[in-house]
């Protein structure tokens, strides 16, 4: 029996369970991990057998944890975080120092803060000064030498990025909203300056769609709330789309056009161990953010390229 219990808490089984709960589906977790859905399903069954409990139940939109699964999810998250902390504490050298990080407001939502939170847990002696701002202001802070690492729209930075990614953008509306093609389209936009806003307007003009701006905000939380409450259509990356409250739509005749914005990760040339650790974790987090995880892709069904060193 002791061996059975210890086997149940194998990190790879717990990571699979946490990932499936996070995505709300086996297919979403498998796609992000780059693995077969059947392999993840087998791991979940193995975990349920070892614990003697049913951990997930199916719904019309995927899977959700059972009561026992919710309890395991709480502990599994803490177990995995503790494992990362222990592994780091046992390293020969302790990562120390201060790193000044800048994140573009439109992407500083879930994945990137999670990456920084992981860095905080694994490198407790490192101090981070994190600034979240819109692209142009962030680029200016970089130009003024006030940041060590930054992620923002590549075109506004007068520097060469360490890594670049194309972030696919999806047209979304409220899950119960119906878009009437005969009426002007209500759109929800970021305040200027914003690359997403310009991309949206250009695409709508090219599609011959009449539109009117209903909500303007510099805050992604306001944009998401406006979409969820049926105030209009917005362009959002997969990481910002809540499948329980939002729906991905196609806006003909531009249904085959792929919309994306190029983002870069910028880092100072002379890097301390703290800066290198930050670059590594943010690169991993941003790569996960760009993976297509939205069902019913419309205008952005071209998968993003694997991040590579910028030339």
Automatic annotation (TrEMBL):
Q: Which residues form the HTH lysR-type domain?
A: 9-66
Q: Which UniProt keywords apply?
A: DNA-binding, Transcription, Transcription regulation
UniProt signal peptide: none
| Record PROSITE patterns | HTH_LYSR
Coiled coil regions, renumbered to chain: none
Task: Fetch the PANTHER family from UniProt.
Answer: HTH-TYPE TRANSCRIPTIONAL REGULATOR LRHA-RELATED (PTHR30579:SF7), TRANSCRIPTIONAL REGULATOR (PTHR30579)
What the record says about family reads:
Belongs to the LysR transcriptional regulatory family.
Q: What is this protein called?
A: LysR family transcriptional regulator
């Amino acid at each position: 029996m002791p061996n059975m219990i210890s086997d149940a808490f194998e990190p790879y089984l717990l990571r699979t369970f946490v990932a499936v709960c996070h995505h709300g589906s086996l297919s979403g977790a498998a796609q992000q991990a780059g693995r077969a859905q059947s392999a993840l399903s087998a791991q979940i069954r193995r975990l349920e057998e070892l614990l003697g409990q049913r951990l997930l139940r199916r719904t019309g939109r995927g899977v959700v944890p059972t009561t026992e699964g919710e309890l395991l999810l709480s502990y599994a998250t803490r177990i995995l975080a503790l494992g990362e902390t222990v592994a780091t504490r046992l390293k020969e050298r302790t990562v120390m120092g201060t790193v000044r990080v800048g994140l573009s407001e439109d992407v500083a939502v879930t994945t990137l803060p999670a990456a920084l939170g992981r860095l905080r847990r694994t490198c407790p002696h490192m101090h981070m000064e994190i600034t979240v701002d819109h692209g142009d202001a962030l680029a200016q802070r970089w130009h003024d030498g006030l940041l060590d690492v930054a992620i923002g729209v590549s075109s506004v930075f007068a520097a060469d990025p360490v890594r670049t990614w194309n972030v696919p953008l999806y047209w979304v509306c409220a899950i119960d909203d119906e878009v009437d093609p005969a009426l002007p389209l209500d759109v929800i936009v970021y305040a200027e300056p914003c690359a997403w806003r310009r991309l949206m307007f250009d695409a709508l003009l090219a599609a011959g769609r009449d539109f009117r701006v209903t909500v303007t905000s510099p805050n992604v939380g306001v944009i998401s709330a406006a979409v969820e409450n049926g105030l209009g259509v917005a362009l959002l990356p997969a990481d910002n789309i809540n499948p329980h409250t939002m729906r991905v739509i196609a806006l003909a005749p531009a249904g085959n056009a792929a919309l994306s914005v190029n983002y870069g990760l910028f880092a100072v040339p002379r890097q301390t161990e703290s800066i290198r650790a930050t670059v590594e974790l943010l690169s991993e987090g941003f790569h996960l953010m760009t993976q297509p995880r939205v069902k019913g892709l419309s205008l952005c069904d071209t998968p993003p390229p694997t991040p590579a060193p910028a030339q």
